[in-house]
């Protein structure tokens, strides 16, 4: 799927919602707004289209499937799901964990994406495949079965050359670096909050 970059803009101008615009309520245990989070997560999955390989389709579909699980719970119990934390705690109280498990996997996928992009931003001479492979090893790989690992490994190997990837993101490389750093910083913050929350005993179903 091709992504149309507006003249003078970057790929970040094409997404519906940035993680930098996801509300976080510091007064309420860093509550993350469910609706905006899901929209930002959905927007981020279009990054895998930009990578231009069908090998990334399982990665994208995995994230979209988990977004769907969380959204279904949000739609089923909107008053109890305004923040992701409230959604999880209320779902668990109801004796269910479909969305809670979906969010766990979604956060792993977002952590993988954030770490890959951060590694590539901070290491200007490193190819994308190395950044994605390193990020995979520290995030998703320990949780994947021997059946799933080769599928994701194939995606890492199918990553385009660094120069080709950044060229697809727009013409102004300085502008791209600024926009990507803003997005990755915001994503890292959200992931850190959710990983801390998910480590709490009351946020687990097992």
What's the layout of helices and strands?
Layout: E1 24-25, E2 31-32, H1 34-44, H2 47-50, H3 57-76, H4 84-93, H5 98-122, H6 128-138, H7 149-157, H8 162-168, H9 173-198
Antiparallel strand pairs: 1-2
Helix pairs in contact: 1-3, 3-5, 5-6, 5-9, 6-7
Relevant terms:
mainly alpha, two-stranded antiparallel ribbon, 206 residues, Glycolipid transfer protein, GLTP
Question: What does it look like?
Answer:
The protein has one domain: Glycolipid transfer protein (Glycolipid transfer protein, GLTP, Orthogonal Bundle). The protein is 60% helix and 2% strand. The protein contains 9 helices and 2 strands, in the order E-E-H-H-H-H-H-H-H-H-H. It has a two-stranded antiparallel ribbon with strand order 1-2. Strand 1 and strand 2 form a beta hairpin. Helix 1 packs antiparallel against helix 3, helix 3 crosses helix 5 and helix 5 packs antiparallel against helix 6.
What percent of residues are in strands?
Answer: under 5%
Q: Determine Rg (CA atoms, Å).
A: 17 Å
Total domains, how many?
1
Rounded average pLDDT: 92
Main sheet overview: 2 strands, antiparallel
Summarize this structure briefly.
With 206 residues, this protein is mostly helical. 60% of the residues lie in helices and 2% in strands.
């Amino acid at each position: 799927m091709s992504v149309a970059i507006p003249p003078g803009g970057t790929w970040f101008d094409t997404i519906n919602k940035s993680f930098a615009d996801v509300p976080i309520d510091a007064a309420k245990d860093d509550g993350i707004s469910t609706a905006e989070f899901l929209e930002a997560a959905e927007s981020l999955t279009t990054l895998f289209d930009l990578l231009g390989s069908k090998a990334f389709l399982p990665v994208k579909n995995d994230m979209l499937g988990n977004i769907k699980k969380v959204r279904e719970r949000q739609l089923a119990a909107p008053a109890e799901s305004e923040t992701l934390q409230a959604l999880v705690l209320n779902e668990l109280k109801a004796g269910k964990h479909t969305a809670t498990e979906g969010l766990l996997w979604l956060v792993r996928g977002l952590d993988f994406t954030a770490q890959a992009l951060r590694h590539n931003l901070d290491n200007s001479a490193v190819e994308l495949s190395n950044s994605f492979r390193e990020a995979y090893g520290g995030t998703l790989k320990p949780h994947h079965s021997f059946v799933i690992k080769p599928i994701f490994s194939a995606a890492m190997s199918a990553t385009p050359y660094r120069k080709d990837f950044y060229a697809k993101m727009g013409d102004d490389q300085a502008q791209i670096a600024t926009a990507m750093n803003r997005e990755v910083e915001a994503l890292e913050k959200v992931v850190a909050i959710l990983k801390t929350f998910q480590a709490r005993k009351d946020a687990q179903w097992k």
